[in-house]
Design a protein that fits this description.
Length: 254
């Protein structure tokens, strides 16, 4: 109409059609609304993604803090038991006291520094289990029967630090001397992508007693739930005079 100097007779017929004009206005409003809604939707998705990332970051930090807390619970428990051993040797003025202190030093390096890593080579975990066993052999002398069998395992295979040591420690602390011996059997083997840890020790105690469970069992269960979620299986049973532990990591590479 403005182009025709406001002379309606000179306006094209379609532009004078009310339905056409209404349809055109509807299309324009629809297009603008669509663009606006699309922009709003993208902004909402972006904000939701940002909130989701912050929530995930918070959950990861909480998980890490809980793991650190559980690790720190292991340290004083383990250290207390080992210092008791050294104290016993020092009272006897044993010549093996320096050797015990050296082995403890190696173990402390592991639990104070290496344990801060999310994962360590399985061979390193096994090395320190053997170090701990050799320390206990000095204490138990001829009253200990122990076997440790491990398959040949890829040196790059990694596990959470201090994953098996608490079980071994509890075997020594809560195991029973039967027929003159504390007997402990440990087996670590691979079956495809599954890692199996089995251990049994002579034990007269009732499974329901606090001493039979050990302070580390609840700790290790919580850690397994955080680290391996539904990717593991743990069984702890008392059969006759044996305390048995079976731990299976279903997909150790996952």
């Amino acid at each position: 109409m403005f182009l025709s100097n406001l002379k309606i007779t000179q306006v094209p017929p379609m532009s004078r059609n009310f339905v056409f004009v209404l349809l055109l206005v509807f299309l324009v409003v629809s297009a603008v609304s669509f663009v606006r809604l699309l922009t709003h939707n993208f902004q909402t998705i972006s904000r939701n993604k940002e909130l989701e990332n912050k929530l995930l970051e918070g959950q990861l930090k909480f998980k890490e803090q809980e793991l650190q807390y559980l690790k720190k619970q292991i340290h004083p428990h383990f250290l207390f038991n080992t210092l008791n051993t050294i104290y016993g040797f020092s009272l006897k003025q044993s010549k093996q006291t320096p050797e015990v202190i050296l082995k403890l030093s190696n173990l402390l390096d592991y639990i104070l520094y290496q344990v801060q890593k999310p994962k360590v080579p399985l061979q390193e975990e096994v090395l320190h289990i053997k170090e701990y066993i050799s320390l206990e052999k000095i204490r138990f002398q001829d009253t200990l029967k122990i076997s440790f069998v491990m398959d040949e395992i890829n040196e790059n295979l990694q596990v959470a630090p201090m994953l098996f040591i608490p079980f071994v420690e509890n075997a020594f602390k809560h195991g029973s001397i039967i027929d003159g011996f504390l007997t402990i059997e440990i087996v670590i083997k691979m079956k495809g992508t599954e890692l199996e840890f089995t251990m049994k020790n002579s034990n007269k105690q009732d499974m329901d007693s606090p001493a039979s469970k050990g302070v580390g069992l609840d700790n290790i269960t919580k850690r397994l739930n955080l680290l391996y979620k539904e990717n593991y299986e743990l069984k702890v049973v008392q059969e006759n005079s044996w305390h048995k532990v079976f731990l299976l990591i279903k997909d150790i590479h996952g």
